[in-house]
């Protein structure tokens, strides 16, 4: 496809957009162009109402809210797990809404990482988000081993993307667990999850994925692909609010595994209040919960998931790809001349939900964008991320934002800002 990049075209795209009506469901600021949905999604009116409803259930029922009301708290994590499952191609019993992404990763690693014989290594990649690496290092240390020896990382040839050959090189007969992001957080590259899982399994390696930058933007088929486990946050494309409760997937073939980190809410619900000191695990993913669920941090997801049920993940993906292609082509035609280098793969099958641009003055450019009402995302040392959200980014907003970015680069207004990141980049 090719674009004209004028307002008439953007207006036509908006008229033809099946998802345009969902924009009214979100709180948007006049004159602001929010392109940071891959970092923190915006508040929807349904999410807001869901929080108010859960507050009301606390007010009206007190402790009886655990079993009473429209959304009883005792089974809320399980019911939302069932609603999340279609977004990642999982069975309802394989998904639970719980914890945070790092806590869930610790749970999964403590369950799956059991070094034995020469299979003592965890394989990851050098481009992964730091928190995941910290968790891997911690789990290796808890086994009395040295992360410098036992954590091996796929090396990127270009510093922004990975090939399947890069990954296969760390899948050896010494590798116990492979953990990768579904989408590389800097470049936006979508990894071939199905093929990676297949090749790793052929070598006897357990495979997990961090879905932080794909859930809610990219459909997956985790069950059919045979992925062993996955973790994610729900505050990016899932619009569950800052620090909102995350989730995990564990394939049903592993449901007999005892959680590495046992906790009260991982108990069989029929026996949980027996108060026995013998742990009786729940069936399915619910067994891998640890503590009492954070009800108010989970509440927004009730409203958010209802929007996903109505829109459908396939339609959201189609619009996301169209809008990121729009950005990609604009960069190539209008911004490349200013030293903007696109590092996100061009093929739809290799791209997540954002476009990443590399520029030596990236931090200063992001500040200039914010001064013009554009909300981008900076990632050290030199990456600008632009993420339209299919639920609420209109084509007219996208058109105006890209024209403003061209203006910033043409007039070099970014040079009046320091090229240093803010505390929150």
TrEMBL record:
<feature type="binding site">
    <location>
        <position position="292"/>
    </location>
    <ligand>
        <name>pyridoxal 5'-phosphate</name>
    </ligand>
</feature>
<protein>
    <recommendedName>
        <fullName>Kynureninase</fullName>
        <ecNumber>3.7.1.3</ecNumber>
    </recommendedName>
</protein>
<dbReference type="GO" id="GO:0019441">
    <property type="term" value="P:L-tryptophan catabolic process to kynurenine"/>
</dbReference>
<feature type="binding site">
    <location>
        <position position="235"/>
    </location>
    <ligand>
        <name>pyridoxal 5'-phosphate</name>
    </ligand>
</feature>
<keyword id="KW-0662">Pyridine nucleotide biosynthesis</keyword>
<dbReference type="GO" id="GO:0030170">
    <property type="term" value="F:pyridoxal phosphate binding"/>
</dbReference>
<dbReference type="GO" id="GO:0030429">
    <property type="term" value="F:kynureninase activity"/>
</dbReference>
<keyword id="KW-0663">Pyridoxal phosphate</keyword>
<feature type="binding site">
    <location>
        <position position="264"/>
    </location>
    <ligand>
        <name>pyridoxal 5'-phosphate</name>
    </ligand>
</feature>
<dbReference type="GO" id="GO:0097053">
    <property type="term" value="P:L-kynurenine catabolic process"/>
</dbReference>
<keyword id="KW-0378">Hydrolase</keyword>
<feature type="binding site">
    <location>
        <position position="102"/>
    </location>
    <ligand>
        <name>pyridoxal 5'-phosphate</name>
    </ligand>
</feature>
<comment type="similarity">
    <text>Belongs to the kynureninase family.</text>
</comment>
<dbReference type="InterPro" id="IPR015424">
    <property type="entry name" value="PyrdxlP-dep_Trfase"/>
</dbReference>
<dbReference type="Pfam" id="PF22580">
    <property type="entry name" value="KYNU_C"/>
</dbReference>
<comment type="pathway">
    <text>Amino-acid degradation; L-kynurenine degradation; L-alanine and anthranilate from L-kynurenine: step 1/1.</text>
</comment>
<dbReference type="InterPro" id="IPR015421">
    <property type="entry name" value="PyrdxlP-dep_Trfase_major"/>
</dbReference>
<dbReference type="GO" id="GO:0019805">
    <property type="term" value="P:quinolinate biosynthetic process"/>
</dbReference>
<feature type="binding site">
    <location>
        <position position="213"/>
    </location>
    <ligand>
        <name>pyridoxal 5'-phosphate</name>
    </ligand>
</feature>
<dbReference type="InterPro" id="IPR010111">
    <property type="entry name" value="Kynureninase"/>
</dbReference>
<feature type="modified residue" description="N6-(pyridoxal phosphate)lysine">
    <location>
        <position position="236"/>
    </location>
</feature>
<comment type="pathway">
    <text>Cofactor biosynthesis; NAD(+) biosynthesis; quinolinate from L-kynurenine: step 2/3.</text>
</comment>
<dbReference type="GO" id="GO:0009435">
    <property type="term" value="P:NAD+ biosynthetic process"/>
</dbReference>
<comment type="subunit">
    <text>Homodimer.</text>
</comment>
<feature type="binding site">
    <location>
        <begin position="129"/>
        <end position="132"/>
    </location>
    <ligand>
        <name>pyridoxal 5'-phosphate</name>
    </ligand>
</feature>
<dbReference type="GO" id="GO:0005737">
    <property type="term" value="C:cytoplasm"/>
</dbReference>
<dbReference type="GO" id="GO:0043420">
    <property type="term" value="P:anthranilate metabolic process"/>
</dbReference>
<feature type="binding site">
    <location>
        <position position="101"/>
    </location>
    <ligand>
        <name>pyridoxal 5'-phosphate</name>
    </ligand>
</feature>
<feature type="binding site">
    <location>
        <position position="210"/>
    </location>
    <ligand>
        <name>pyridoxal 5'-phosphate</name>
    </ligand>
</feature>
<dbReference type="InterPro" id="IPR015422">
    <property type="entry name" value="PyrdxlP-dep_Trfase_small"/>
</dbReference>
<comment type="function">
    <text>Catalyzes the cleavage of L-kynurenine (L-Kyn) and L-3-hydroxykynurenine (L-3OHKyn) into anthranilic acid (AA) and 3-hydroxyanthranilic acid (3-OHAA), respectively.</text>
</comment>
